[in-house]
């Protein structure tokens, strides 16, 4: 494998406390040296001039829907990986709610084998908590984890049965994997199409109150305390949840959480004139919630930014708002939306990088997330102030469902390296196949 | 060509011009049978409403239009055809306007963005029912001359009511004060931001009202646990003869129909001297003629 020397990059490596201009040498797919002074280029090395760019640990997305097996028209492992590396992600966690649910080693292996074929980024499958996501019987967690699953989740649906939730938290302690939860009390969200507030009233849409999420977070924190398990709350959307998680962390509970870029960028007014591209679960919340999420990103309550990348076809969105399918694609806009918080002065560059790399790596215990010598050379190069306009038609994802089409973002991925190999450079994929 | 998707988006002077046009369409007014002669008005009703559909149909015919009635029952929608498929098929027949009633809020707006002809919202989900609000305002204006300084009380299930939303916007735009009254479970958040005042005590606000607009109570609201029972609802929010006595002497009673007699409105009041319910129906045709004239001609 060709050695690579990145010269004069601004290296931001939160785990190792690095933020400054460095040369970085990559040998045999791993970080070999990070130096304040110039490093000599080894023979045959590729030299990358990274002046004015950030060199950061490759991003890891804890929450991605790759749609394979079953809905390959929306996305496949391959197209999802292309979108991931184009967005600067070197690792993604694949949700199990495919149209053969990942509740057995067979499906896990299929996803992993597709990921090997794609040979672009790391794909970490998550296994279902319950068989068929039905919320009735526990799936065979031991088998799933043995096959390579890194977390258990019924994402897309909550575990409504509290007794079952308590048991999975207990059961998972023997494997020490997090139980990832989609918090939604279905009796409170029933029939709802968007956040309950002035906008839902104006539009005459049934609202989903914040309590649909907060009540479930409260329940699961109570269960967590009793079971001494590990809980990861997916796509936290509102102030009440943040407050409970912050307090639980203070008390030493093993709870982590993620926030999606759309939830810290948009509020419910984005639904505007029944724009189905602003329809998602949990829904876009109020401006007060957006502010609370931003504070929680700053103060450490939030561990990771995760996209909840949810590809859907055009016809899924070109319908009455109530019929529109939830979700947006997120991999290719995540960095720009996160850096918007940096440009606004909400997040420091270091904290932004931490939320995209080190944070998620720690939460699920994944390799990468930092750049100490010996770490895998999963590296993202970012041109932090370059402006670009989101054009959904140019996404590498197979789907185009985004409310950010046409928005100008500042900060762009210039190169993505996985295991010392360049997989994305200057807007182009570098596929080995 | 202009759409009428809701009261939202229309200015006061535009609404008043529309009501002035409606005045000319009252019985005895000038002949308007040439306005849409040779043109087609398509009624696209995804939800049953004989009243509203008939009213639009009569209005269209009196303007000389041919009416194409399309209804949900027995349609290809049940076979998986989308709303836009249906609308585009109707559009291919070249109508001057599509009048659409749909159970999903925002459906007429979706159609309007994808067809070239005018779209008139005849009621969408719990969003808007602009022609109803215009005919209500027309009826009040007929009695009062202008709405400025008047208080209109809207009573009942505001949460699920498109009539309430359109009336709130329309009455406010025309200068009236609007109070919305009902149980907390049926008054959604944010009504104040739309210009309304909120009360849960009918007896407290009733004496302030120059007009009381009752909303129809759907019986399924009990099974959905928005309310304990119809009986309790009538006791707390029904406009009974005893309550009517405590209203201002010349206060009016309106209802968009059909009435659940004895639930939100007692028969004695519905048929009594305060009631302008039949005037509403008659005015409906004139107002809808003005709407079709404004949108389709
Ligand atoms: Zn989810």
What multimeric state do the chains show? heterodimer
Summarize the helix and strand pattern of chain B as letters: HEHEHEHEHEHEEHEHHHEHH
The number of helical segments of chain B is 12
Tally the helices of chain A: what do you get?
14
Measured between the Cα atoms of the first and last residue of chain B, the distance is 7 Å
Helix content of chain B: 25-40%
Task: Detail the topology: elements first, then pairings.
The complex is a heterodimer of chains A (433) and B (297).
Chain A: E1 4-13, E2 18-27, E3 30-35, E4 46-49, E5 54-57, E6 59-64, H1 77-86, E7 89-94, H2 105-118, E8 122-125, H3 141-147, E9 152-153, H4 162-172, E10 179-181, H5 186-189, E11 194-195, H6 198-203, E12 207-208, H7 211-227, E13 231-233, H8 239-250, E14 255-259, H9 261-265, H10 287-299, E15 304-305, H11 314-317, H12 334-343, H13 349-356, H14 358-364, E16 379-389, E17 408-418, E18 421-425, E19 428-429
Parallel strand pairs in A: 1-4, 1-5, 6-7, 7-8, 9-10, 10-13, 11-12, 13-14, 14-15
Antiparallel strand pairs in A: 1-2, 2-3, 5-16, 16-17, 17-18, 18-19
Helix pairs in contact in A: 1-2, 2-3, 4-7, 7-8, 8-10
Chain B: H1 12-24, E1 40-45, H2 50-62, E2 66-71, H3 83-91, E3 97-102, H4 107-112, E4 118-124, H5 130-144, E5 151-155, H6 162-173, E6 177-181, E7 197-199, H7 202-205, E8 211-214, H8 220-223, H9 230-237, H10 241-245, E9 252-254, H11 267-270, H12 277-296
Parallel strand pairs in B: 1-2, 1-3, 3-4, 5-6, 5-8, 6-7, 8-9
Helix pairs in contact in B: 1-12, 2-12, 5-6, 5-12
The structure holds zinc ion.
Zinc ion binds next to loops of chain A.
């Amino acid at each position: 494998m060709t050695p690579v020397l990145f010269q004069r990059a601004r290296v931001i490596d939160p785990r190792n406390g690095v933020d400054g201009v460095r040369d970085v040498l990559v040998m045999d797919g791993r970080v070999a040296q990070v130096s304040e002074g110039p490093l000599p280029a080894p023979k045959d090395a590729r030299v990358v001039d990274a002046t004015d760019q950030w060199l950061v640990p490759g991003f890891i997305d804890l929450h991605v829907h790759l749609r394979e097996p079953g809905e390959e028209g929306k996305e496949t492992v391959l197209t999802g990986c292309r979108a991931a590396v184009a967005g600067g992600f070197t690792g993604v966690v694949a949700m199990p709610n495919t149209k053969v649910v990942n509740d057995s080693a067979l499906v896990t292996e299929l996803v992993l084998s597709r990921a090997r074929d794609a040979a672009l980024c790391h794909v970490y499958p998550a296994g279902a908590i319950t068989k068929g996501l039905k919320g009735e019987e526990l799936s065979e967690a031991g088998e799933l984890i043995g096959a390579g699953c890194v977390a258990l989740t019924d994402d897309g649906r909550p575990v409504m049965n509290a007794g079952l939730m308590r048991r999975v938290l207990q059961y998972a302690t023997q494997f020490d994997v997090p139980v990832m939860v989609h918090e939604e009390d279905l009796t409170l969200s029933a029939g709802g199409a968007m956040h309950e507030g002035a906008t839902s009233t104006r539009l005459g849409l049934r609202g989903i109150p914040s309590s649909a999420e907060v009540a479930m977070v409260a329940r699961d924190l109570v269960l967590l305390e009793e079971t001494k398990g590990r809980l990861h709350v997916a796509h936290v959307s509102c102030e009440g949840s943040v407050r409970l998680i912050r307090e639980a962390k203070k008390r030493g509970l093993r709870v982590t959480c993620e926030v999606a870029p759309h939830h810290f960028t948009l509020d419910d007014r984005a639904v505007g004139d029944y724009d189905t591209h602003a329809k998602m679960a949990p829904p876009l919340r109020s401006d007060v919630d957006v502010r609370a999420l931003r504070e929680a990103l700053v103060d450490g309550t939030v561990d990771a930014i995760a996209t909840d990348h949810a590809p859907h076809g055009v016809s899924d969105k070109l319908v009455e708002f109530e019929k529109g399918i939830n979700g947006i694609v997120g991999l290719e806009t995540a960095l720009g939306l996160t850096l918007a918080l940096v440009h606004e002065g909400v997040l420091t560059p270091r904290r932004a990088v931490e939320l995209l790399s080190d944070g998620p790596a720690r939460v699920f215990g994944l390799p990468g997330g930092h750049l100490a010598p010996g770490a895998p050379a999963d590296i993202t190069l970012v041109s932090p102030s370059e402006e670009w306009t989101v054009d959904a038609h140019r996404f590498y994802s197979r789907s185009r469902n985004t409310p950010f089409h046409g928005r100008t973002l500042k900060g762009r991925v210039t190169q993505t390296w996985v295991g010392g190999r360049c997989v994305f450079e200057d807007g182009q994929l570098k596929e080995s196949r | 060509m202009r759409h009428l998707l809701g009261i939202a988006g229309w200015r006061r002077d535009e609404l008043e011009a529309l009501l002035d046009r409606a005045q000319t369409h009252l019985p005895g007014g000038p002949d308007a049978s040439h306005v849409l002669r040779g043109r087609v008005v398509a009624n696209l009703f995804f939800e049953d409403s004989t009243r509203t559909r008939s009213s639009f149909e009569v209005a269209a015919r009196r303007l000389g239009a041919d009416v194409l009635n399309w209804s949900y029952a027995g349609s290809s929608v049940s076979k998986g055809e989308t709303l836009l498929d249906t609308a585009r098929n109707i559009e291919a027949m070249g109508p001057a306007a599509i009048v659409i009633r749909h159970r999903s809020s925002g459906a007429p707006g979706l159609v309007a963005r994808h067809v070239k002809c005018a779209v008139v919202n005849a009621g969408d989900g719990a969003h808007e029912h602009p022609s109803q609000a215009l005919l209500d305002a027309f009826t009040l204006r007929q009695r009062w001359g202008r709405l400025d300084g008047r208080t209109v009380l809207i009573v009942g299930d505001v949460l699920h009511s498109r009539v309430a939303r359109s009336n709130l916007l329309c009455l406010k735009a025309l200068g009236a004060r609007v109070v919305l009254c009902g149980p907390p479970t049926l008054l959604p958040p944010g009504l104040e931001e739309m210009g309304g005042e909120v009360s849960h005590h009918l007896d407290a606000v009733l004496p302030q009202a120059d007009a009381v607009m009752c909303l129809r109570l759907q019986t399924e609201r009990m099974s959905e646990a928005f309310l304990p029972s119809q009986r309790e609802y009538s006791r707390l929010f029904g406009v009974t003869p005893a309550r009517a006595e405590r209203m201002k002497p010349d206060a009016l009673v309106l209802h968009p129909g059909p009435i659940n007699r004895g639930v939100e409105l007692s028969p004695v009041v519905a048929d009594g001297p305060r009631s302008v319910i039949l005037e509403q129906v008659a005015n409906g045709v004139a107002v809808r003629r003005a709407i079709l004239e404004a949108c389709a001609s």
